[in-house]
Design brief:
The chain is of the alpha/beta class. It is built from 14 helices and 16 strands. It has one domain: Rossmann fold. The two termini are 22 Å apart. It binds S-adenosylmethionine.
């Protein structure tokens, strides 16, 4: 996800969208009135997914130049082409091409993957399933596939829940884990506090309180003694639902790979004492804004991913962590150079467009370092090409 880093100026939303947010705010205030201050994860869940009102549930344009942020598949075909190369390596081993994409956004990655895989050994013999929470985005995905992969769109089906029958294949989730609701905590006078959400007139605000047991126990497991080294006033986020989420997704995957790409860090960087404000951030009209209580439902809310926690959650589900690296090194390992090999023979405009796309995907100041790729596998004993250029599992 890319957006300008102007952390506190939120442009005023258009008047016709404000009622959506006011309705959602009213609903949240009523829940707080009935049940008391809510954990931040509950607020984030509603702000993103409340049926008809949440950011991902309402029919607003989210991705691309006319939306709030741009993801790697929205930049062009290069990202999808490299992911397809990694998928092909795994599916050749499995002897069948079955893909489950989680959180498919506009459907652009699905369109590129289908076209690329159909050009390879699999031909048109591809099963492509999408698990998408947002009814609105499911519709957008169908439209994108009909226009960008018309011959193959019929092979795509949408699931209401993860596959219930045993299967072999590849699960792909680009920028989905960052959209899972998190809890926020702070350290005050040496003590752990959970940051809840309270209503303040028409607005919302943080209300620190004693931590619920799931937060304090999980944080103790993940940070141990390192919590003592965090400075006074330190705040950060923690995802308490990674293991159940991953278990739900992969419980029937008998053999295959889960490829997760997202912005985040290994734990020691995630909870580095100098990262004292955490990583919670909102996206609105291509600006990154530090204001989760402004206009709920109209802006995206995300938190960086603790990749160590993701690998541990995988382990708890019986998955092996088969690779972890930066997006840049993943794309290079998967075959970005090969994708760019014919560049010199292309018209100058195409050369410039592809070079700019490759830069944005791989440069450290763009998406190259901030984004990471992780592969979790079951029953696969093979080195994955995307992690051959630089495998950083030792940093987890
Ligand atoms: C930031 S967007 C990324 C979209 C797309 N993968 C891309 O790279 O452009 C997050 C996507 O994940 C979906 N999503 C979030 N949580 C989900 C869940 N638990 N199951 C399925 N989809 C989910 C959202 O509706 C949205 O499509």
């Amino acid at each position: 996800m890319t957006a300008d880093a102007s952390r506190d100026i939120l442009p005023e939303p258009p008047d016709d969208l404000k009622p959506l947010s006011r309705t959602l705010s009213g609903l949240l205030r009523e829940r707080i009135r009935q049940n008391g201050p809510m954990p931040f994860s509950e607020y984030m869940e509603a702000a993103l997914y409340e049926p008809g009102l949440g950011y991902y549930s309402a029919g607003l344009q989210k991705l691309g130049p006319g939306g709030d942020f741009t993801t790697a598949p929205e930049l062009g075909e290069l990202f999808g082409a490299c992911v397809a190369r990694q998928i092909e390596q795994v599916t050749s081993e499995l002897g069948q091409v079955s893909i489950l994409e989680v959180g498919a956004g506009s459907g652009r990655l699905a369109a590129v993957l289908l076209r690329r895989l159909a050009n390879g050994k699999a031909g048109a013999n591809i099963q492509y399933r999408i698990l998408e929470r947002s009814a609105h985005l499911r519709q957008v995905q169908a439209e994108t596939l009909a226009s960008e992969a018309p011959q193959l769109a019929g092979q795509v089906s949408w699931l209401e829940q993860p596959p219930e029958e045993a299967w072999n294949g590849v699960i792909v989730a680009n920028e989905v884990v960052d959209a899972l609701p998190v809890e926020r905590f702070c350290k005050h006078e040496g003590q752990l506090l959970q940051m809840n959400v309270m209503a303040d007139g028409e607005a919302f605000d943080w209300l620190p309180g004693p931590p619920r047991s799931t937060l304090s126990e999980t944080l103790r497991q993940r940070l141990g003694q390192a919590f003592e080294d965090l400075p006074e006033g330190y705040c950060s986020e923690i995802n308490l639902t990674l293991a159940p989420w991953l278990e739900g997704l992969t419980s029937r995957l008998e053999k295959g790979c889960v490829l997760l790409i997202d912005y985040g860090y290994p734990r020691q960087d995630y909870y580095h004492p100098q990262r004292r404000e955490g990583s919670l951030i909102c996206h609105y009209r291509h600006r990154a804004v530090d204001a989760p209580f402004r206009w709920p439902g109209l802006q995206d809310i995300t938190a960086f991913v603790d990749f160590t926690a993701l690998a541990e959650a995988g382990h708890a589900c019986g998955l092996d962590c088969a690779g972890f690296t930066s997006q840049a090194m993943f794309l290079l390992g998967a075959g970005l150079d090969d994708e760019l090999a014919g560049l010199a023979g292309l018209p100058v405009d195409d050369q410039m467009r592809l070079a700019a796309e490759a830069r944005q995907l791989t440069m450290p100041g763009e998406m190259g370092e901030k984004f990471k790729a992780m592969a979790l596998t079951r029953g696969l004993d093979m080195p994955l090409r995307g992690f051959e250029a630089l495998d950083q599992r030792h940093r987890l």
